[in-house]
Every structure is written in C-alpha cells, then in structure tokens.
Amino acid sequence: MRPWEKNIRRVAPYVPGEQPKGDNLIKLNTNENPYPPAPGVRQALKEMDYDQFRKYPDPTSNELIKVLSEYYQVNENEIFVGVGSDDVIAMAFMTFFNSELPILFPDVSYSFYKVWAELFHIPYETPVLDDNFCIHKEDYYKANGGIIFPNPNAPTGLLLPLEEVEDIIARNQNSVVIVDEAYIDFGGESAVKLTRKYENLLVVQTFSKSRSLAGMRIGYAIGHQNLIQSVNDVKYSYNSYTMNMPSLRSGVEAVKDDRYFKESIGRIVKTREETKGRLKELGFSFPDSMANFIFASHRERKAEEIYKALRENHIYVRYFNQPRLDNHLRISIGTDEEMKEFFGFLEGFLSN
Amino acid sequence: MRPWEKNIRRVAPYVPGEQPKGDNLIKLNTNENPYPPAPGVRQALKEMDYDQFRKYPDPTSNELIKVLSEYYQVNENEIFVGVGSDDVIAMAFMTFFNSELPILFPDVSYSFYKVWAELFHIPYETPVLDDNFCIHKEDYYKANGGIIFPNPNAPTGLLLPLEEVEDIIARNQNSVVIVDEAYIDFGGESAVKLTRKYENLLVVQTFSKSRSLAGMRIGYAIGHQNLIQSVNDVKYSYNSYTMNMPSLRSGVEAVKDDRYFKESIGRIVKTREETKGRLKELGFSFPDSMANFIFASHRERKAEEIYKALRENHIYVRYFNQPRLDNHLRISIGTDEEMKEFFGFLEGFLSN
C-alpha cells in the first residue's frame, strides 16, 4: 500500500439505475418521465446565443430562481438551485448535518441518504418502516442531528399526509428537517407552504421527474432565508458555477409552461391508476403509490425472476437486491403504449 | 440562536469575478476566452434530440472520456470529468486530502484552495512565493498531506518549468500531488505525460479557458487509474449524474476540432505578447505570463484607482483587495478590438 492510499476517503458509492443504450427498449427503471419536456425548452435551446458559451454562467442562477419564486410564491432568497436534487441534498447534508447526534431517515428509503451520511462521516439511525412500509411519525420524536425523508417515499410510493409531515417538523424544531419531494407533483400535497411557518424546514424538489428534465440536471430547495443563505455559502465554497447555461435556460422554460406541466402529470397519473388495476388482475400487490412508479410484488413468482425475464425482452424495471426489498419490482410509469407492451409480455410470462 | 444553527458548517465562500450584464462592456475580469467555442458545438447542440432530455444523462460521461483519452493518449480509466475544474478539484480534495498533516499550496495562488481546505476541514500551509512571485520547489520538500499548485500559477501567469514540477512530484511520492493546469494550453508544457511515471500525480484541466466553454462547465483530471477510481467512488457517493446532456455533447465537439482549438489559442497568445509590449510602454510591470491574462502593476498609479476608472467606463478587469496583490490588476486577454479599446482608455487615463 502506498502511503497516500491511507488518506483516501473510503466510500461505498450509490449505484444508479442502469442506463441501457439503444432505441428498441422500454425503460421503466429510473422513474423518468415518459413525455418530453415543455416545447419551450426546445425552442429556447435552439435560440441560445452560442457565442455566449465562452463566458461563465450566472453563478446566482437568478433567472431560474426568479420564475421558481413566482411559481411557489416565495421570496427569491428562499430558493437554492443545484445540479439535480442529489446535488442539492448533498450540499444540505454538508451544510446542516454536523451534529454529534445521529440524523434520522427511514430504513427503506432513497438509498443515497446512507451514502451521503457515510461520505461526510455523519452518524445516522434508520427507524424501521412497518410491514406495510409505512413511516411512523413517533419514530422521529427522539433527539437527533437532523431528519430527512422522501414524501412520497421511494421506492414505495407511499405518501405521508401533510399533517403528519408537519407533526415531525413541529416536534423537531431543534433540528433541520429535509422533506425530499422528488415525486410530490404526482399526487401529494407539498410541504412548501409550511416553510413560512417553520424555520427548520427545507423542502427539496427536482426537474428530473415531473418536469421531464432528468438530462438537464436541475434540483432546488425552498426554505427560510437563513437556511438558504447557509447552503449557498457552502455551495460558493464548493463550486461557484454549478448550473450551466442550457440548464438555467431550460429550467426557466419548463416552469413557465404550467399548462403543459399539468397535462403531462395528468396523463401519467391516469396511466398509473390504470396500471394499478392491471397489476392487481395479474396477481401483484403494492403500496398505493402517489408517485410515478409502483413498488410491486407478485403472489407467486419471484421478483428477481420477473426482472430478469423482462430484461431479456428489453424491458427494464428496477430490482433491489437488498433485504426487505428483494421480492419487489419498482416499475416506473411509461406511456400507455409502453405499459401495453410491458403487460403484453408480463401476461404471457405469468401464464407459463 | 436556534439549536440547529450551531450544527451549520461555517465557511467563508470564494468570491467569483463579477458577471456584469449588458452588451456594451469589455469583460477582461474572469479569464474567459474572447473567441466562441468550436463551430461543431453550435451544430451539435442544434441537432440534439430534445425528447431525450427527459432521460438521465450517461453517468459515466463515456463519450466525452473517450475523445479525451484519444486526445491525450491515455486510457479511459485514467480520466475523470466534472462540472468545471472547480468540481473536479473539490472532489479531489474530498478524496485524497484526509491526512492529519497539512496540505501545501502557494500563498499567492488560486484562492479557492484555501476555501476548499476550510470547507472540508483540511489542515494547510501556504509556502510564501518570493518577491518575484516565483514558486520555490524546495518549499515543498517537507512532510505534508498533499500538494496542489496551478501551473501556470494564478493570478501571476508564471510557469514553473516541467523539470521543477517533476521534482516536486518525485520528492513527494508519499502524497498525492495535484497540478492544476487551467491555463497550460496558452504556452506551458503539460505534466500529463508524467502521469505514466508517477502514480501520485493528478493533472487537472478545464474547458473553460482554452476551449471557450466556461458556460458549459466541464473540467477533467488525468492520473493513474487507482486515483481516478478513488475520485470516481467519491463522485458516485455525491451525485451520480453531474454532467448534463448538452455539456457532454459540447465537450466532445470541442475536443474533436483540434485545428480550431490551436488557431484560437494562437490568436490569444499573439494578442498577449502584443499586450505585454503595450503595457510596458505605458509604465506597467508584470511577471512574464504564459496564461491568458497578465498580472500587472503600474509604476505610478494605484491599481485600485485604475480598476475603478476602467470600471466606470464599462471595462472590467480583476482587482484583488488582498495583501501582496492589492497593487496589481489581473487583465484577461480579449480580442484585438477589445484590447484596442482597453488601451485607448488607459492611455487617456494615464496621461491625466
């Protein structure tokens, strides 16, 4: 071992869902939106002044923050933007979770929380979800160095009612509570309005799911200006210019077109509810998802077996080879056409 | 003070150069390239399949790494890419600088090094440059937890000959040595070839200066595959998808057009040398810059005074209100047209 090797930060990285290449495949494995972003995005990118790329982008992301502040009816100094909600949450972990006490997050949840905690050497505890994958708010009443949970939760899709979210925030005013609302637009009630009432609340959202811009990497946080100021200080101590010109531009256009946004969500929700019905008919059970995916297990066939069969037929869903999760599949909601092909294969497979 | 406030990471952020808005100004303050990126960038962006933005980008940045590996004649597993060289260096600090011993970097240097060290709680020492702003390699012969320096140095533009760079690397094989080559393409000899010889060397470069893509945020590091693997592990523990689709695409096109790249550098170098001559005539002195900027002080007039006068006339240069630097201006090399206007104003101002 070389002497400098002992100074390397040892981590066990998060493993993102596969990004298979090719056109003839159905990709229901990374909760992407099956519909393209708002048409204004295409137009704006085509019209970008290419000569300007030689210059640094606006480090304050001002234009994007402006449209977001109007959309959510908050002040501009109550919004922070980053390179996807992963960047936003990583920065928030670095900024807020520096206590000796453990932070708390559910044992079944976005698996990146544990990775960030380990990266930044943050102690953590993971209260156990019940057998129906429900969060029990009482598990979050103990002393802690911070709290984070997704709402709806991932990979279950289960929504915690806003009163229970508020209860967790209200009982933890000595900690920063982060509500990770990556999937909130698909049917939940956002905690954004609670940021007016609680200074310790940070709500994180993303353009990757409901706004069809995963490829552009845009996430944001809304909270009290003191929280936003602190996370901005850390951001400016890490990288002055995180958001590039096309991402800032597309973000603005995506927010502006609210009609397109709502229509596209409406279509996904409709397909999701139809998908639930079909899955039940085929012998699957699942928590009642309010997200753009369904976390399902079959009464007879093993999840891994179904996953592999689908994969061989170029249909990708997400399989987690982990305790408690390893007999479930996380199926992202695709277009009606894609779901038809998915069920077409599945019916044949399950009848054998 | 709220209880959670004591858990906030306290930092004094880096302050980036001003990004003034408007068209009628001459911007020589952030070392941007005065020429647009390679024409292929424009074309490629116009032709991007906008529907694909709904999907996540390639987390491995494979296409971009491939062209870089061909360009620099290294293996693909010897390259890491990030959101500008700031992101790359921040990740490298997090990955490699975890010793109890202080890391070393010059006292007059890229001021972000100190900010990163403080962000990550890394002890550091800053060997003092001599009165001519030269690095003395002997200052880097002591026990340390890592070394980083820019070559050419910023904001001086001074180049350390490759033999001296190699000497520092060779005498520090117990540490990781990072050579920050943000400006190397403007006249220096790169240390990339030394990565074959020294496993402890990481060379960092950027698309923001010589490749005219500051607005796109692309940086990269070249080093032994073990170093690259370690920094990738940290990256995948921080944010799986740092590079968005347009940045990956533009990066590829910029590397492909080597003729455009060299022509544009040739023009800047020519203008830089002419600028040196004109500055001398006007009573300025400066280290002999091998970068795309000149760090100059005037024999009679105070730097701050000149800076303010230029600014009032919509000509922006960089002024550092810091000990040792506060009687210098860092002047980025613009187009011949821009330098003509710069000198036009300066002549009038200095003759009053």
Pairing-aware structural class of the strands and helices of chain A?
A: alpha/beta
Shape, per Cα inertia axes of chain A: globular
Low-confidence stretches of chain A: none
> What oligomeric state is this?
homodimer
The major β-sheet of chain A equals:
5 strands, mixed
Strand content of chain A: 5-15%
Q: Mind telling me the CATH class of the largest domain in chain A?
A: Alpha Beta
Counted up, domains of chain A total: 2
Q: Figure out the total of helices of chain A.
A: 10
Share of helix of chain A, binned: 25-40%
Task: Report the average pLDDT across residues of chain A.
Answer: 96
Distance between the termini of chain A: 54 Å
Q: Going across the major beta sheet of chain A, what is the strand order? A: 1-11-12-10-9
Number of strands of chain A: 12
Listing every helix as H and every strand as E from the N terminus to the C terminus, the arrangement of chain A reads: EHHEHEHEEHEEEHHHEEHEEH
CATH architecture of the largest domain in chain A: 3-Layer(aba) Sandwich
CATH topology value of the largest domain in chain A: Aspartate Aminotransferase, domain 2
The value of Rg of chain A in angstroms is 21 Å
Architecture blueprint of SSEs:
The structure is a homodimer of 352-residue chains.
Chain A: E1 26-28, H1 39-46, H2 62-72, E2 79-82, H3 84-96, E3 103-104, H4 112-119, E4 124-125, E5 147-150, H5 162-170, E6 177-180, E7 201-206, E8 219-223, H6 225-236, H7 245-256, H8 258-281, E9 284-285, E10 293-298, H9 303-312, E11 315-319, E12 329-332, H10 336-350
Parallel strand pairs in A: 1-11, 3-4, 5-6, 6-7
Antiparallel strand pairs in A: 2-8, 7-8, 9-10, 10-12, 11-12
